[in-house]
Specification:
disordered N terminus, Immunoglobulin-like, 600 residues, 4 helices, 2 domains, eight-stranded mixed barrel, mainly beta
Length: 600
């Protein structure tokens, strides 16, 4: 048995031959005063492509992805997440050591060698806990990663759903094995509606379609034939990237559409891959003016935004609410493709390369995502794109925040051994600033005003003591400085936020091997960068590119307890790039001597 996609295969999968599956939708009855649902994890076998043998999976209620929950604002929902899984971990988890020039994810490169199965994974127990990503709910209902349950036990969760309309999703969040459990199939979508959204009369019914996108790899046997099993193969310090794109659990599917408007709820459910999505016509040209962004992770925008010619970027766990008009394309077959030239960045393509072209050296051997086949019929819908979406939407600025908001400083950095961490930083008084050479955990930063501040690392790994406590319903500004050299999508539980600023920084003076900067050699501000309009909506995941500082503002409203924030590259999260914080009533914090927070 081989466990690497570099081995030549005698089997190739045809594209666009399977219809797009539409996940089963569960509408929560608005007349039910106390709705309750039960979901049960179970191991199944399902075909991810008609030319593949059945693939073992872990699923919610036997479905991959899980059923779509459809809930209205204010419906307090109780969900029982039962662990009914009796099968062993269904995929092959394998590791390929780094080698000079190793692209690690090319589909056919026999010179690299074979990946070795990771010891112990096949015997792991099915240990699950479900997190409703983006939910405002108490800490004991949030899916704390160490509160996972074994077979026969259940997790009980209460979701108040006291939030604006948005696209949420649920997925496994078990400590140390999130990457494996989600990869095995434990993910699904959750749609939250409100009166403001329903008044827009957006396309619905069979014209509102979830698109849950993820990448996977497939195991082959010694003869190069697909076994049907998924292959979670990583390489060196790189997380998982696969050559096969699935939409709603099917590889390279096709969807028959009418020549009219559709609403697509798009979720990047990949472990690590960032997508830059384009819609192409039959000649391979990028279509513009037909797709509009109307909502981001955590709600509707104020007005529709056209999807730009250079594509719509989605990092892991990001969502996009899209309207697409197929009316001008009667009788045509359109392709949705990914052009992200490197999964850790999602940068625009280099000159001379078109969307839809493969880039195997940049871990994009197959750019195709899916196909839309537009029926050759007269348009039948009368929908018109609204000029205004959410009248309650507000674009945040620092001046709009209450005076008592709290500031935090966070660095994304690697230790000397390459272990990634979330460095919570505290300001060091100038009189106490260290002198001499580089000291571990001491970082100097010069901001856009030329002011240099010295910071001391207070915590970096999950098991470090709790360091940050937020006041319930309080506003906070987090500055997130990426010193690591790769993009990280940062997810903060409980809150939704907006970026206030994105700035470029010279991070060359940060000495990873020594864990800091030398006095007088700070990480220095280079330039203020434009904020992509698609990032100006409400978010719960923020892409932080290397060499940038992203300033976020959000409110920790509606609940209290202990929560997590982490990189949503799941291999990074499991490797320790996750931290905890607590949200408490302000009066309780003050009584316990935890107050003293002030705006800056």
């Amino acid at each position: 048995m081989t466990t690497t996609e570099e081995t030549p295969t005698t089997t190739a999968l045809a594209k666009f031959v399977d219809p797009l599956p539409i996940p089963r939708r569960l509408h929560v009855d608005r007349a039910d005063p106390a709705p309750r649902l039960t979901f049960r994890t179970v191991g199944v076998q399902a075909r991810l492509h008609s030319q593949l043998p059945p693939t073992p999976l872990w699923t919610y209620d036997g479905e991959f992805p899980g059923p779509v929950l459809d809930v209205h604002r204010g419906q307090r929902l109780h969900v029982t997440w039962e662990n009914g899984t009796t099968t062993s971990y269904p995929a092959v988890d394998a590791f390929l050591a780094d080698a000079p020039g190793n692209p690690s994810l090319a589909m056919n490169d026999p010179g690299i060698g074979l990946a070795q199965p990771v010891k112990g994974v096949a015997a792991l127990p099915a240990w699950h806990v479900t997190h409703l990503h983006g939910a405002v709910t108490g800490g004991d209902n949030d899916g704390w990663m160490e509160n996972a349950v074994l077979h026969g036990d259940a997790q009980l969760s209460e979701y108040p759903n006291d939030q604006p309309a948005m696209t949420l999703w649920y997925h496994d969040h078990a400590m140390n094995v999130t990457r494996l459990n989600v990869f095995a199939g434990l993910a699904g979508m959750y749609l939250l509606r409100d009166d403001e959204e329903e008044a827009l009369r957006l396309p619905g019914g069979d014209r509102e379609i979830p698109l849950i996108v993820c990448d996977r790899n497939l195991e082959t046997d010694a003869a190069g034939r697909f076994t049907g099993r998924l292959l979670h193969k990583t390489s060196g310090t790189l997380p998982f990237f696969g050559p096969y794109t699935l939409v709603n659990g099917r590889i390279w599917p096709a969807l028959e559409v009418a020549p009219g408007w559709y609403r697509f709820r798009v979720l990047n459910a990949s472990n690590a891959r960032t997508y830059r999505l384009h819609l192409l016509d039959e000649a391979g040209q990028v279509l513009t003016g037909t797709a509009w962004l109307i909502g981001t992770d955590s709600g509707l925008l104020g007005a529709p935004l056209p999807v730009p010619a250079d594509g719509l970027t989605l990092a892991p766990a990001e969502r996009a609410d899209l309207l697409v008009d197929f009316g001008p394309f009667r009788g045509q077959a359109l392709r949705l493709v990914n052009s992200a030239q490197a999964p850790f960045r999602g940068d625009p393509l280099p000159a001379g390369v078109r969307p839809g072209d493969p880039l195997p050296a940049n871990r994009l051997p197959e750019p195709d995502v899916m196909q839309f086949r537009v029926a050759d019929l007269p348009p039948t819908d009368g929908f018109r794109l609204p000029r205004t979406l959410s009248a309650s939407y507000v674009r945040l600025t620092h001046d709009r925040l209450p005076a008592d908001h709290m500031h935090r400083m966070l660095a994304l950095a690697a230790d000397a051994d390459g272990t990634l961490g979330l460095w919570e930083l505290g300001e060091v008084p100038a009189s106490e600033a260290p002198t001499g050479g580089v000291q571990d955990g001491i970082v100097q930063v010069t901001d856009q005003d030329g002011v240099t501040t010295t910071y001391r690392r207070l915590a970096r790994h999950f098991d470090d003591p709790l360091n940050w406590r937020a006041r319930q319903d309080g506003w906070e500004v987090w500055k997130v400085l990426n010193l690591s050299g790769i993009l990280h999508p940062v997810h903060i539980h409980l809150t939704r936020f907006q970026p206030l600023a994105i700035d470029g920084y010279d991070t060359e003076k940060f000495v990873q091997a020594q864990g800091g900067t030398a006095p007088g050699a700070p990480v220095a501000h280079l330039e203020s960068l434009p904020i992509d309009p698609s990032l100006t909506g409400w978010k719960d995941v923020m892409r932080v590119p290397p060499g940038t500082m992203v300033t976020l503002a959000g409110q920790f409203r509606g609940a209290s307890g202990r929560y997590m924030y982490h990189c949503h590259i799941l291999e990074h999260e499991d490797a320790g790039m996750m931290r905890q914080f607590a949200v408490m009533p302000g009066a309780v914090m003050d009584l316990g001597g935890m107050g003293g927070m002030s705006g800056m």
